[in-house]
Amino acid sequence: MLAREFVERFERFAPKEWAEPWDVPGLQLGDLEAPIHKILVVLDVRPETVQEAIDVGADFIFAHHPAMFHPAKNLDLSNPQNRMYATILAHHLTVYAAHTNLDSAPGGMNDWLAAALGLQDCQGLVPSNGPATTADVTMGRIGNLATPTTVQAFAQHCKQVFHVRGLRLISQTPQAPVQRVAVLGGSGSEFYTAAVAQGADVYVTGDVSYHPAQDMLAAGLSVVDPGHHIESICQVELTRLFTTWATENDWPVAVQASTLNTDPFTFL
């Protein structure tokens, strides 16, 4: 099959028009008219995941995070990012990314995160700003735990669910009860007021910085920051989804999830 055929099917699930205005989803490098036989699903397009694609014989890389957030100003191959682009093109790989459109899609990233946390009766947290979104296309989710717990115990639960060695807890009341939980994958600090407005006991999101954390405390909200890399859940979920599509449509294509950890942070 052609890369274009696969992309057309995916964009019925999570159209690029659902992405936030600042985002750059879609074709990153390569040729959508190229035939594909094996897809490697990754969170990040990094030199190590590109080499993984080459090693496993993939010809299509499906990524969550775009490879080209910032335009290249030159093609100086002493720059590691440029060298990675050159490697992608030299090996005839096609790279495609679905970022905030996948985050907001019904049945997409934030539904996977909410399910992993065991949330029930979920609703959207904040409307998407994508130019073609509808009422059911929302960033983040908010729902309820089946059994109440405490802030601190819930933070420990997040460590286990997302397989992280450490996380940051922002709370003045670690023993307070928790039942209603909001989650937004990636960097969701700016949306904490929506979590407060919808009655969340805890908000789960990544990349919380110093001053927003103080504002969250002042608002009486407890926040669990397990990092940005928890979005790697997409590797397993997308592989499962794409494999189902391949079976349903009799596509001659294999799908494999990356086995590499691209989280740049280490807890000591």
TrEMBL record:
InterPro entries: DUF34/NIF3, DUF34/NIF3_sf. Keywords: Metal-binding. One of its GO terms (molecular function) is metal ion binding. A divalent metal cation 2 binds at residue 64. GO terms for cellular component: cytoplasm. It comes from the Bacteria. A divalent metal cation 1 binds at residues 65, 103, 228, 231. Belongs to the GTP cyclohydrolase I type 2/NIF3 family. Homohexamer. This is GTP cyclohydrolase 1 type 2 homolog. It comes from Levilactobacillus namurensis DSM 19117. The lineage of its organism: Bacteria, Bacillati, Bacillota, Bacilli, Lactobacillales.
